[in-house]
Amino acid sequence: MNVRLLPLLLLFCFPSFAQQPVYKEFEVDSTAQPRGGMSFLNTYLQTNLRKPTPIEAEGIGGRAILSAVVEPDGRLSSVTVLKGLHPDLDREAVRAVSLFQAWKPAKKGGQVVRQQTVIPVAFAKNTPFVYQNGAKILYFDADSKLVDSTQARYKQSTLISAEGQPAGYIVLYEQKGKSWKEINRSPLIRKLKSYQNDAGKWVHQVGHQNADLRWEGLLVETDEDGNRFRQAYYKNGKRVDDEFVYYPVGMVARKIESLDSTDALTSWYPNGQIKEIRTGARDKQIGAPQQDKVIAFWDNTGKQLVADGNGQATFIARRKSCNDTIQYTNFIEQGSFKNGLKHGDWSGRYADGSYFYKETYWDGAFKGGKNRTGQADTVFYGVIEQQPEFPEGMAGLGKFLSENLQYPVNAQKAGVQGKVFVSFVVCTDGTLCDYTVLKGVHPDVDQEALRVVKKMSGRWKPGVQRGQKVRVKYNLPINFSLY
Asked: Residue 282 — pLDDT band, cuts 50, 70, 90?
């Protein structure tokens, strides 16, 4: 007997609303709206829109008009361009709008229905720049201020891909008569498997570093699958502009905006809905009282739980399980905020039961806590974090180095001098391990720096987090100078 199943299977492959009519805004009782409101949709768009480098070089700005259908389940479909601006910018507008899938659907006669909506997407104009042969060209005067080419003393050429990622050397030229003379060249640095993100993916870093191995300029980080994970601008190792963290699909998960002496963080759920707004001191100190202020927080349904710094919130993040460090689990934290600061009892737990903590705060000040890992005894603590420390702090560390370093004779005769950068891990018992010379100046000098660092093993006071000793990576520059 032949049974024809294919038509039936095909029938059930389509969503039930696929055959429903699409209404205009004036035909429904309540129109479709982005969760959080139009202002937050505009904030989302301005954060996520990325001009291709050749278009950015022209400084093009303007507005594209898009059409889309808000489905009954709050998703967006059929995103098309009604009025274009530029082919490349139109494609970028469609990409950004299509990733926003957090809509409150329209209603008609008490039922959710499909509705067509029109979405304007604005691209801000920017200062044009020269982009030749894949290189961004900038001109500076003697005081390092941006000027046009007719007033320039220096010229900087930076290889940048069309997607805005560092792609090669940064070359600095100085004007000599009617020609440009190269005075410095910074190679592109690719650091593979620098660290793992919350999803357990290895993060690769691509950018440029100065002589002290500190990031300089644009640093782009991608995960092991090639997806952009994070990017920011740095000067001498410190972030000097906004930082963006991305979901694998290319949507911004967090934006840290640099203000005067503070940072403002805005975060979004994976569907584009607004999640949290908070502010905090830019240079936080380990062990200091709670400094971040949570201004607003929404759950994943679009309901606002914290407004004007007051309310209750639940945060969920991915962490390595304490039972099996190969596995990941959800870390769930919850508590109350008063005037933007933690207040009252806060608790956190791993979903697999491998970790738990409970802490008390008063107007943001930490008052004490306890935690338990697996089947171990409960640990009580009075500070949240403490960095590893050498006896008598930095002064003691400097004294130890000066008393134990021996300048290699061959290096002295050769006039070798400079900074050796050594990386190591301070283990939970105060010993050191995982030694690496990040940057050396001469084999003999490098080995001497490594010898002295190893001699410090067992002398360190280990780092502590929530009452438990933890391994902490430490980078130490050791200077060898003949003068």
From this structure: low
Q: Which residues of 161-191 are buried (b: 16+ CB within 10 A; e: fewer)?
A: eeebbbbbebbbbeeeeeebeeeeebeeeee
Least confident among 170-179, 205-214, 265-274: 205-214
pLDDT, mean of residues 111-117: 97
CB 148 within 8 A of CB 154: no
Domain 393-480 has CATH 3.30.1150.10: yes
pLDDT > 50? residue 8: no
Q: Which residue type, as a one-letter code, is found at position 449? A: A
Compute the mean pLDDT over every residue in the chain, rounded to the nearest whole number: 90
Closest of 370, 372, 399, 363 to residue 384, by C-alpha? 370
Note whether 481 and 430 are within 8 A (CB). no
User: In angstroms, rounded to a whole number, what is the distance separating the alpha carbons of residues 127 and 313?
Assistant: 41
**What six digits make up the tokens of 396?**
């003691």
For residues 121 and 45, is the Cβ–Cβ distance under 8 A? yes
Q: Specify the CATH number for 14-123; select among 1.10.510, 1.10.3860, 3.30.2420, 3.40.1560.
A: 3.30.2420
DSSP lists the bridge partners of residue 139 as 155
In angstroms, rounded to a whole number, what is the distance separating the alpha carbons of residues 28 and 95?
27
Q: How does pLDDT run across 9-41, given as a tens digit for each residue?
A: 333 333 555 578 999 999 999 999 999 889 999
- Domains of the chain by residue range: 14-123, 130-186, 197-209+236-386, 393-480
Residue 238, pLDDT score: 85
- 430: β partners: none
